[in-house]
Write a structure and sequence with these properties.
- This protein is α+β, with helices and mostly antiparallel strands and 254 residues long.
- It has 2 domains: 5-109, no CATH class; 138-249, no CATH class.
- The chain is 54% helix and 19% strand.
- Strands 1, 2, 3, 4 and 5 form a 5-stranded antiparallel sheet that branches.
- Strand 2 and strand 3 (44-45) form a beta hairpin.
- The chain is extended.
């Protein structure tokens, strides 16, 4: 008997805290999570597992960042109005983050005063923060809605096609089935090939563009950053198209 067992990452919600989100570029509400490594049998685990670390996930952009619970005075059990959350979990947030908040104000009011080196680092930072999310997505095959619909469509195409072949030309039932199988495989394969770019367009580019918009990066700056990520072996460097990102950046804010 073959038994599937091993270890898996287990996330446990601890509560909510206030902190600065470098993607949203402002203080935000975060969900604080404990990350554990637990044994599993058939992917069912018991308990929270050995402590691996902590993460906080922004409630707005859903980006996960490393966290240290001792950084906060307390953890709220539920979402609170943001001023109340700050007072309860990080009362000195604005004092502690003054340098970063001042930098964001400089970006908003006087972006031309930022040095080229600092500007490139600021452009690169959101890419690096979102890169783990892209790596996780491409670590396994995912079937999005379009791919599932293509699979269902391929099955119906084979059923209907063979039924029609039986009525029109019974002798060609076998070849017709083979043709429809090939067409179905092509349909599903094509959608699988496109699913990665769809994921980038739906889940990565809007978040990335929102973070980069205050910096107004040029197409050349975007391409330079993407090329750098590609050289460093980040999946984002090969999957992200500068043209898609530039197109999203050119759209008016919602």
């Amino acid at each position: 008997m073959f038994i599937v067992w091993g270890r898996k990452i287990v996330r446990r919600k601890l509560g909510y805290v206030a902190d600065f989100c470098p993607i949203c570029r402002k203080p935000a509400t975060f969900e604080l999570q404990r990350i554990g490594s637990a044994g599993h049998i058939y992917y069912i685990s018991a308990g929270q597992g050995a402590l691996v670390g902590f993460e906080k996930q922004c409630a707005k952009c859903h980006t996960s960042l490393n966290a240290e619970p001792t950084h906060y005075t307390s953890v709220a059990d539920k979402k609170l109005a943001f001023p109340e959350l700050v007072a309860q979990t990080f009362p000195k947030l604005h004092e502690a983050l003054k340098a970063r908040l001042d930098l964001e104000e400089q970006i908003r009011l006087a972006p031309a005063t930022i040095s080229p080196e600092d500007r490139q680092a600021l452009i690169r930072h959101p890419f690096l923060l979102l890169s783990p999310k892209v790596e996780q997505r491409y670590a396994a095959t995912h079937l999005d809605l379009e791919t599932v619909l293509a699979f269902v469509g391929a099955i119906f195409l084979m059923i209907i096609g063979v039924a029609v072949a039986k009525k029109v030309a019974l002798d060609y039932e076998g070849p017709a089935l083979l043709v429809f199988i090939v067409v179905g495989i092509v349909m599903v394969g094509w959608q699988l090939a496109l699913s990665g770019r769809r994921y980038m367009r739906k889940h990565i580019i809007p978040v990335l563009a929102g973070s980069l918009k205050p910096l107004k990066p040029t197409s050349r700056e975007l391409q330079t950053t993407i090329d750098e990520l590609n050289r460093l072996g980040h999946k984002m460097g090969s999957k992200l198209k500068a043209a898609d990102l530039s197109r999203h950046l050119s759209q008016p804010a919602p």
